[in-house]
Design a protein that fits this description.
Largest sheet: 7 strands, parallel
Radius of gyration: 18 Å
Mean pLDDT: 95
Pfam families: adh_short_C2
Keywords: Oxidoreductase
Protein name: SDR family oxidoreductase
Number of strands: 7
CATH class: Alpha Beta
CATH architecture: 3-Layer(aba) Sandwich
Family: Belongs to the short-chain dehydrogenases/reductases (SDR) family.
Helix content: 40-55%
CATH superfamily: NAD(P)-binding Rossmann-like Domain
Number of helices: 9
Number of domains: 1
Length: 263
């Protein structure tokens, strides 16, 4: 196999993307489908899944709340029907969580963030691993963390805590599953252009008592390249990590962030 060929994911790769109806998840799902993979997505937003189906009718989908074990079980019932197995799990589900000083955060907001961002990683991994162990196509798990999974993040403690935990889970699973040939890596996106980031910037600006424009400039000053990344940048990394070119890459927390210097 040439180096160029090794950079292309295998045609027919069976991929599950959680929270794949919109945002980074949808971009990753479309990238895999365009590369020739068979893709199943799940999302809590049924309308988003309908929009995705209109854009990419080859994909199959399930409506599910990634933080609910019963919903996750139903997703895997659908995966067995639509894909007949699994080669790649993209554990992408996550929410921004509340913004504010720790003493002002309510318990419900904290627990919801942990449930969606961290517990969902466990729920999907425990069901995916038996299928991945049977795969003959370079099986792997991609855990979506964040630059907040390597840096402290004042006023966003629930989010940062879960994203650090995802890296710990990934590194432990890489050791656990390596002997079975299953690779596990984490992608740590930085500041990603889009509606979600605009909302985060707005909330953080409000908490700091400054304008959203000033907060955006503050974010850019923290990035060595002085630009935000795109969902396509993250999808490109996901494709690489699931390609034969990355067959010896496991247990890694890989940032796609333009080198975020601090948060």
């Amino acid at each position: 196999m040439s180096i160029l060929d090794s950079l292309r994911p295998a045609v027919g790769l069976r991929v599950l993307v959680t929270a794949g109806g919109s945002g980074i998840g949808a971009t990753v799902a479309r990238a895999f489908a365009e590369s020739g993979a068979r893709v199943h997505v799940c999302d809590i937003d049924q309308a988003a899944l309908r929009r995705l189906a209109s854009e990419a009718p080859s994909m199959t989908s399930s409506v599910a709340d990634a933080s609910v074990p019963g919903d996750v079980d139903r997703v895997f019932d659908d995966v067995r029907t639509t894909l007949g197995g699994l080669d790649v799990l993209v554990n992408n589900a996550g929410i921004a969580g509340p913004t504010g000083p720790i003493e002002n955060l309510d318990v419900e907001g904290w627990e919801r963030t942990v449930s969606v961002n961290l517990n969902s990683q466990y729920y999907f991994a425990r069901r995916a691993v038996p299928l991945l162990k049977k795969s003959q196509l370079n099986p792997c798990v991609l855990a979506m963390s964040s630059v907040a999974g390597r840096l402290g993040y004042a006023l966003r403690t629930p989010y940062a805590a879960t994203k650090w935990a995802i890296v710990g889970l990934m590194k432990s699973l890489a050791i656990e599953l390596g002997p079975q040939g299953v690779r596990v890596n984490a992608i740590l996106p930085g500041t990603v252009e889009g509606e979600r980031m605009s909302g985060v910037i707005g909330a953080r600006a409000a908490a700091a008592g400054i304008s959203a424009e000033a907060m955006r400039e503050e974010y850019l000053r923290k990035i060595s390249l002085r630009r935000m990344v795109t969902a396509e940048d993250v999808a490109a990394m996901a494709l690489f990590l699931c390609s034969p070119a990355a067959r010896n890459v496991t247990g890694q927390a890989i940032s796609v962030d333009g080198n975020m210097e601090y948060l």
